[in-house]
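TA notes. Do not distribute before section.
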Amino acid sequence: MPAPRTRALLLPVDPQRFVPTRERPVRAKSRHLEQDTEITPHSHAWAQVVVCASGVARITAGHSTYLVPAWRAVWIPPDIKHLVNVVEAAELRTLYVHQEAGRVGPGVPREADAAWRGCRVLEVSALLRELVLQMDVAMDGRGSMSAAALERERRLGELALDELRRAAPVRLGVDLPQDKRLRTLCEAVLQDPSRHATLEGWARETAASPRTVARLFRQQLDTSFGPWRQQVLLAHALRLAAQGRPMGLIAAELGYASPSAFSAMVRRAVGQPPSRFFATA
C-alpha cells in the first residue's frame, strides 16, 4: 500500500497586498500551488472569484464544497470562511472585488442580485478568460502604478465584472453536513466516489446502519444519498474530462455500466449532453 501523501499547509497571501478599494475595486493575483497543498481557512471583507487556469482545486466555502477544474470559477461573497485544497497542481488566478462592486456590475435586478449572496460555480467565457490573464499582468500589486496602468486596471475590472454578471452558473456544488458522523462519510465519498455504489456499502465503513445514514442525509442536507452522490460523480467526471479522458473511460472509472448510462446521468443533472457540458474542460 502506498504511503499517504503529506499535505502542505499554507497561509493566505498577505491580504493587504491585494485589498480592493473604491479607487481600485477589482484586484488580481496569481499563485501556483502544488498537489496536496491546503490554504488554511480564512475570510475577508471583499468578494472573491477563484479561477483555475490549470489543474484542479477543491474549494470549501460555507456549508458546501466545489471541485473546480481548469477554467471554471467559484464566486465567494464577502465574509464567508473558505479554504482551498489542491487536487492536482494548479495555477490559481484570483480576483478580489470591493464590497461596493460586489453586485457584479450595475443594473443587476434585485432577484438576480440575491443569487450573488451565496457561493456559486460559474462558466468562464473566452473573453473572461483573457481578461483574467490580462488583469493578472496589470494588477500585480507590486509597488506604485502609473496613471495609465491604473486606468487600464479600472477598464479591465469593469469588463470582468460585466462578464461575470453574464456568466452561466454551473451546478457543481456539493453540500456538506454539520454532523461529524455524516461529514466523515461524505469526505470519504468525495475522495473516492466509486468505491461503493450504494448507501449500504458506505454505511458499513462508518459502522452505522443504512437507515441511520439515510435519516442523517435528510435531516442535514435535505436530500437522499443518491442525488448527493450524483453531484460528487459529476464533479469528478469534469475533473477527468479536463485531463483529456474519453467519455467511455470516465464512465467506467466512475462505475457506470455503459457510456450511455453515464450520459443519461449528466443530462438529468445539468440538462446538457456530456459533449457540451465537458467542452470547456
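Switch to the second chain here.
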Amino acid sequence: MEIPFLAQPDQLEAKIAEWQALAEARLRMDYVTSYSGHRVYGLSVSDFRSSTEGRRAHYFAQPHAHEPGATAGMMDVLEQLLTGRDLYGEPTPLDVERVLAKTVLTFNPIGNPQGRAAAPVPFWDGSRYTNDQFWCWMRGDDSDHPGHMWRRLDEWDRRVERAPEPVGIVYEQIDEYRYVEPNRSQLSAYFRLFHQLDARYHYDCWLDLHQTEFVHSPHTCEILLPIAGLASGSIAEVNHKWGQRIVDAWIRAGFRALPQPVPLGYTGEQAEYFRRNWGALHQRMNIISTEIKNNAPDAPPQFQMRAQVIAIQESIKRLLED
C-alpha cells in the first residue's frame, strides 16, 4: 500500500479543497502570504455551527521545511477529525463529536512552504543523503568549507552575509534581501499567522512538531520542554505532565523514546533567539515540542508520521480530561 505521506504544499492545498467540500461546518481556513507568494495556512477545526467561546483552544504547528514528518502527522489527524478515518482508511480512535464540541484545534501544517517546495525529496529516510549532505540542504553548503553546512542565524541579509547558493531550505525569504529561520524570528509567516489567529481563539496550549537526527543516540523520539527558566509554576508542571503522557504513549507503541521530557538544551546565541521570541509565550501558555528521528534507515516515513500522530492525539485527548 502506498504511504499516505502528505507533506508538500500542493498536496496540502488539494486536501484543503477536499475537506472544505466535505466538512464546511467543521473547518475554518486562514492564511498569510509569504514573500515568495506561498500561503501559510491555519486550519481550525471545531463545531462552528455554534459559538466557540469557552472551548479549549490548542495550536499545532511546524516551522521547518526539512522536517516533513511533522506535516504528514498533522495531515493524518486533520483527516481523522474531518472524515472520521485516518489516511489509511482506518477509523479514528478520537471521539470526534466530543472533540468538536469542546475544543478549537488549529493546525499550521507547513510553516515554510517556500523551503518545503525546494526540498529534493518528499521525506528523508537515510536512503539517499548522508546527514552531512542533509544538513547542507537544510542550511546551505558553506562555500568556505564545502561539504559542511552554513551558519544558523535567526535573521540575515544577502547584502551583509556571503550566503550559500542555493539558500538552505530552513530559511524563509521575507523581502528582496532578508531571510529568517521561522521559529527564531517574529518576522516569519509562521509567527505572523500564529498571532493573527491567537487574537481570535486565545490559545492555551501549543504543540510544536519537529524532527532531528538523533546522531549517536539510542532514541528515536523525545519531548522537549522550554529552556530552563522560561516556564515556571503550574505552567511548567503541566508541560511536564503533558510531555510525559506523550512519551508513555510512544513507549506503548514500541518506539525508543527518551523516558522523560527534557528542557531544550540550547545555550548562547541559539538560546537567546528562543528567549527573545518565545519567552513571553512560555509564561502565558503551555508549550512543548516533539522531536522525531529524521533521515535514518531506522526511521522510515511511516514511523515519522505515526510518532507525530500519537503526540497530537494524546494532546487532544488530554483536553477532554482536564
